[in-house]
Structures are given as C-alpha cells and as structure tokens.
Amino acid sequence: MPPRQSSYPDEPEDDDFDPEGPDPSEMDYSDEPDLAVCPHCRKMISEEAELCPHCGEYITPGDAPLSVTAWIVIGVIVVLLILLMIRMV
Ligand SMILES: [Zn+2]
Fold it and tell me: Which of 34, 56, 79, 88 could form a disulfide with 47 if both were Cys (CB 3.0 to 4.6 A apart)?
C-alpha cells in the first residue's frame, strides 16, 4: 500500500473550521473595525468606510441613525423650546 500523496498532508484546522457558522474567535478582533457587507458588490468592507474600496460605491447604511426629516423635526422642536424659554424669561 503506497503512502497517501496529498498536497496537504496535515490539515489540523480542517476539523474545527465551520464555514456555515460564525467563528467566535473572529469576533474579538480589537484592531479591526466592524465589518459590513457592501450592498453593491457583496464584499466585506469596513463598517466605517464611506466608500467601498472594491467597487467604489458610496455605502449607505440600511437604517441611518437619523434621516434628514428627523433632523428637521428636531430643529423645529429646539426652536420652539428656545422661543418658549425666551417668553418665560
Ligand atoms: Zn462594493
């Protein structure tokens, strides 16, 4: 029986590697920012990136923290509060 010829004679990580599930060890990258998926080319990019380095498209998060409409509403409320304070003085 001839010895098994393999380009990878020993693959110690093969048994532990699960491509389906998230690897908990990859969640602890302290020097790496959070990763996001580019909505245009589906590649992994930095969550803080404004431009995708792969396809060059602008990254717009699915749910922005505050939309322009929200800022307008907040601005109106702040102005009303200021007017109220001026009247009370
Ligand atoms: Zn992209």
Answer: 34
